[in-house]
Design goal:
alpha/beta
Length: 204
C-alpha cells in the first residue's frame, strides 16, 4: 500500500527549508497525517514496516551566499541520501552552513521527517524507515521549490478484508489486491483519491 502526497509549495522563500517557512507545505504534511489516521490507522500497528520516501526539491537558482544553519535538526556526517537519483553522503553542520541546492533540498526533507517523528504518535507502533531525496530542477521558479511524501506500508494481510467478496474471489485465482492512495495539494483545496487496483485494472 502506498500513500503519496505532493505539493507545489510555492510559498517556500528562496533559501528556506523549515517546514514552518512554507504554510502550504505544513498544510500538506498535516493533511497527509490526518488522512493516514482516518483511512489507514488500522494498518499502523503490530510492528508493520513503513517506509517514508521524502523528496525536497529546489529550482535551479544557485545558492549565492552561505545560508545559516543552526543545527536545528542536528549535525550530519556522511548521512545517506539521494541527490538527482544518486546515493550521496550529506555533510552539514552549523559551521559549514548551507552552500548548495543539494543541501537545501535535503534540509527540506529533514524538516518533514522531523515533523512526522515529533508531532504525531500515529507511527509509534510501526517499524519506520526514512529515505531522503534531494532534487534540483533545471528550471527557475517558485513552483519547483516543493516537497513530496510517499509512504509505503509493507505486507498487510488486513488488505485482504477490503472489498471482501471481490477479494475472496480474486484470491481463489491466486492474485493479490493492493491499494494505492494519492493525496495532492491544490491552492484551493486538498484532494484525496482512493484507487483499488487489481492486476493493473482499476476497480471503482
Amino acid at each position: 500500500m502506498k500513500v503519496e502526497a505532493g505539493a507545489n509549495t510555492s510559498d517556500y522563500g528562496p533559501g528556506k527549508y523549515n517546514l514552518f517557512d512554507s504554510p502550504s507545505a505544513k498544510t500538506l504534511v498535516q493533511f497527509f497525517l490526518r488522512s493516514a489516521k482516518e483511512k489507514l490507522y488500522q494498518y499502523l500497528d503490530n510492528g508493520n514496516r513503513v517506509t517514508f520516501r521524502i523528496t525536497g526539491s529546489t529550482d535551479r537558482s544557485k545558492v549565492s551566499s552561505i545560508i545559516a544553519y543552526d543545527n536545528e535538526y542536528g549535525a550530519f556526517k556522511n548521512t545517506p541520501y539521494f541527490y538527482q537519483g544518486s546515493l550521496e553522503g550529506m555533510n552539514l553542520n552549523k559551521d559549514t552552513g548551507v552552500k548548495s541546492n543539494s543541501q537545501l533540498g535535503f534540509l527540506r526533507t529533514v524538516a518533514v521527517k522531523d515533523f512526522i517523528k515529533n508531532n504525531t504518535d500515529l507511527f509509534d507502533l510501526t517499524k519506520n524507515r526514512y529515505i531522503l531525496y534531494s532534487e534540483e530542477s533545471d528550471k527557475l521558479g517558485a513552483e519547483y521549490r516543493k516537497v513530496k511524501i510517499e509512504m509505503t506500508i509493507h505486507n498487510i494481510d488486513k488488505l485482504l478484508s477490503l472489498e471482501k467478496a471481490e477479494t475472496d474471489s480474486k484470491r481463489r485465482n491466486g492474485s493479490n489486491l493492493f491499494t494505492i492512495i494519492f493525496i495532492t495539494y491544490h491552492p484551493l483545496k486538498l484532494i484525496l483519491k482512493i484507487l483499488v487496483s487489481y492486476n493493473f485494472h482499476l476497480l471503482f
